[in-house]
Amino acid sequence: MGIWQKEFTSVFLLFLLVSIVGGLTGLFLPLLLLLILGILIQQVFQITRFERWIRLGGRSQYPKTTGIWEEIYYHVYRIKKNEKRRKKKLSKVIDQFRQSTEALPDAAVVLGANDEIEWANKTALKVLGLKQSDKGQRIPNLIRFPEFIRYLKSGNYQEAVILPSPVNNQMTLAVRVVSYGAGLRLLLAQDVTQLKKMERMRKDFVANVSHELRTPLTVLKGYLETLQDMDDGLSPLLTNSVQQMQAQTDRMQNLVDDLLLLTRLETQQRKTQCIDVPALLTQICKESRDMLDNADRIVLVLDTQVHIVGEELALRSAFSNLLSNALKYSPDNAPVKIRWYQTAESVILSVEDNGEGIAAADIPRVSERFYRIEVRRSKKVPGIGLGLAIVKHALMRHDARLVITSDLGKGSCFSCHFPVAQICTPKANIMPTDPALSLFLNDH
């Protein structure tokens, strides 16, 4: 504020001087105009010099001047200097970022708002087949795998997409997109060839072992049934031993069957058809009621009659496992409610029980293979921990998801959410119009 006071004081003194001289000489107006003209010429000169200095970037030392213009030059010069310091610091950060991403074993590509390539590290050039000259090109034009293009367009980047390398079919990549900034995204591609190879080896091992176990188990079951038929009940030790062996053989048989089913769900190609889910649920519930002392425990609610595209064996296994779990982990007189209904986004099957419930820490893990919650129960619950793993893999084959909600001591709800895109219309049965043909079909 002091500099402005000096400027106003200088102008006021000049105006006072002109007034005194003008009053003595009678030339007040000419002298006043001359004063104003002089001030304007000085300001135009200062503005021109300031504009020239700014136009040249303001890099050099600012011109020598006095008054308010000296303050203006000084503040602009300080802003430019601070900006230069920030640019240098930012440039250093960018260099460090590039050096760190260059050292990454994974491919990294920065994508713009329209999927154009902004920057890529050396690994991306190697495993994705990109070139330095591809900067500015849209990545869907360079990586043309349909699954990758669908993944990029979907906007849902929670899971990675698995695809082969464009330059090496023997290399498998897990590609993930991370959104950041204003419309920018970072594409990361990780080499998972060894992981996929180990996964295939594990699947082959489980499938082979399961197949090999079926024959000896069948032989053991046959001999045990023969021993049971021959048992006259005179030896309690023999009777008890045969019963225990029979129970363990049945348990091993169930384990082998579940492992083989999991292997089929993981490896076999999908063979889909339009599934009448209400009819399938009705049949599953009827089969389960026939095995219960209290058939009223199972409550089936069909709020919709929609059919979905899927595999009947996989859906039957998933729904049966959910119902079986709900019955096993609920009191003998507690009802289990099965509901088939539709919302705007999904078609949902929910299985709700009034059992012991699941702790929040266990919910993310209950669908893992062989995972069982260790709690004290009044009765031993049979099982091997593969039921929910089968459910999860069956739903994955139908682009569906499993949602689990539970309260300890109050019960659980397992919901299978199928996308509405899976809804299908069953083909109508075409009846013959020829009376003779109709008579022939009725007779046979």
UniProtKB/TrEMBL annotation:
Its main location: membrane. GO terms for molecular function: ATP binding; phosphoprotein phosphatase activity; phosphorelay sensor kinase activity. Its EC number is 2.7.13.3. Residues 208-422 form the Histidine kinase domain. Pfam families: HATPase_c (PF02518), HisKA (PF00512), PAS_8 (PF13188), PhoR (PF11808). GO terms for cellular component: plasma membrane. It catalyses: ATP + protein L-histidine = ADP + protein N-phospho-L-histidine. One of its GO terms (biological process) is cellular response to phosphate starvation. InterPro entries: BphY/WalK/GraS-like (IPR050351), HATPase_C_sf (IPR036890), HATPase_dom (IPR003594), His_kinase_dom (IPR005467), HisK_dim/P_dom (IPR003661), HisK_dim/P_sf (IPR036097), PAS (IPR000014), PhoR_N (IPR021766). It is an enzyme of class 2 (transferase). Keywords: ATP-binding, Cell membrane, Kinase, Membrane, Nucleotide-binding, Phosphate transport, Phosphoprotein, Transferase, Transmembrane, Transmembrane helix, Transport, Two-component regulatory system. SUPFAM superfamilies: ATPase domain of HSP90 chaperone/DNA topoisomerase II/histidine kinase, Homodimeric domain of signal transducing histidine kinase. It is found in: Cell membrane. The chain crosses the membrane at residues 12-41. PANTHER family: PHOSPHATE REGULON SENSOR PROTEIN PHOR. Member of the two-component regulatory system PhoR/PhoB involved in the phosphate regulon genes expression. PhoR may function as a membrane-associated protein kinase that phosphorylates PhoB in response to environmental signals. This is Phosphate regulon sensor protein PhoR. It comes from Crenothrix polyspora.
